[in-house]
Design goal:
The protein is mainly alpha-helical. The chain has helices spanning 2-12, 20-47, 49-80, 87-94, 101-133, 137-154, 158-170.
């Protein structure tokens, strides 16, 4: 169990050995992937390419500033706050709470808002494919949901992928 926990920490933290040229785009893509595939084309369609360009440029500058200023300080303090991996864990450790109220509230908020986000992704997928292929909206939305769930079910467990690397590093 201890090896699994170590592998998860190393995977989540990017092994802390990956250079910024690899880590920054990976972090950016992981949190903007859905928006870039659905939101930015919508901005381009609704407002034009110039607005889409300036929106993307502003997001890129903001993301770079965030990584430049915030991330180093946050990581440094997260190590001092019990080597926190997630923001809810960071705040829980930062305020030294014993009842884990922040973790519980964070879990509730994450569950609610990610459910709404996932539902909006399914709606967008349904509208996109219905428009592109001339198929019924509900059928395309359900097809998008099935595809997402199949992709999630077939994805590998990061702990399993990291375990051999962690074992090799320990030797």
């Amino acid at each position: 169990m201890k090896l699994l926990a170590s592998a998860i920490v190393k995977f989540t933290c990017g092994l802390l050995m990956v250079g910024l040229l690899i880590f920054l785009p990976a972090g950016g893509f992981s949190y903007t992937g859905g928006w870039l595939l659905m939101g930015l084309p919508g901005v381009a369609y609704w407002c034009g390419l110039a607005d889409a360009f300036w929106t993307a440029f502003g997001l890129a500058v903001g993301t770079y500033f965030n990584w430049l200023v915030v991330s180093k300080r946050l990581r440094r303090y997260s190590v001092r706050a019990g080597n926190s991996i997630t923001l809810p864990e960071f705040f829980s450790n930062r305020f030294r709470e014993e009842k884990k109220t922040i973790l519980l509230l964070s879990a509730i908020f994450i569950l609610i808002f990610f459910t709404v986000y996932a539902a909006s992704c399914f709606v967008t997928c349904g509208k996109l494919f219905a428009t592109l292929f001339g198929a019924p909206y509900i059928a395309m939305m359900l097809l998008g949901a099935v595809f997402a769930f199949c992709a999630m079910a077939n994805s590998s467990d990061p702990a399993e992928d990291s375990a051999p690397a962690a074992e090799a590093a320990a030797e």
